[in-house]
Amino acid sequence: LLVVIAIIAVLVAFAATNYVGVRSRAKDIRKKAELAQMKYALRLYYNDYSLYPGPATTTSNDLNGCGTATPPSSSCLSQCSGQFAAGATGCDTVYMKLLPPATDYDWNYRQISAGDDFCLWTTLENTSDTEIAKSQAKCNSVCSAYVSTSDYVVCAD
What we know:
The chain has helices at residues 2-49, 74-79, 130-138, 140-143, and strands spanning 59-60, 84-86, 93-96, 107-112, 117-123, 151-155. It is α+β, with helices and mostly antiparallel strands. The longest helix has 48 residues, at 2-49.
């Protein structure tokens, strides 16, 4: 009976460890997918205005996306607060309805090269994820000064 209990305890220990790992990988997959959606929305914005939105300094969980003014006009911000949108009066073009909320995780954004590029990054829970090194290599020329070794990075390419 003791041997059976010991075997069950070992199996439960392995299962619990795998379960925690699966949850952190799922969170990381969500983060990467949301950054990819933001990249797509930023590319649409660039197609309309020939520049990426500001600010040119690092922000956490926010970016300027109402019109071409930097900072965006207060009339637009009051009408589309929490949205990545354009249009100085009505915010008629919504590129991304809601940005990933700060309550879920922290992400950072920075406009680079006077609007010709951008850097978007977040820290993944699984620091051994091979996508981290690939993303940093891809965006090294524009993002290396802003990110740490455990950050997953997205840039304009």
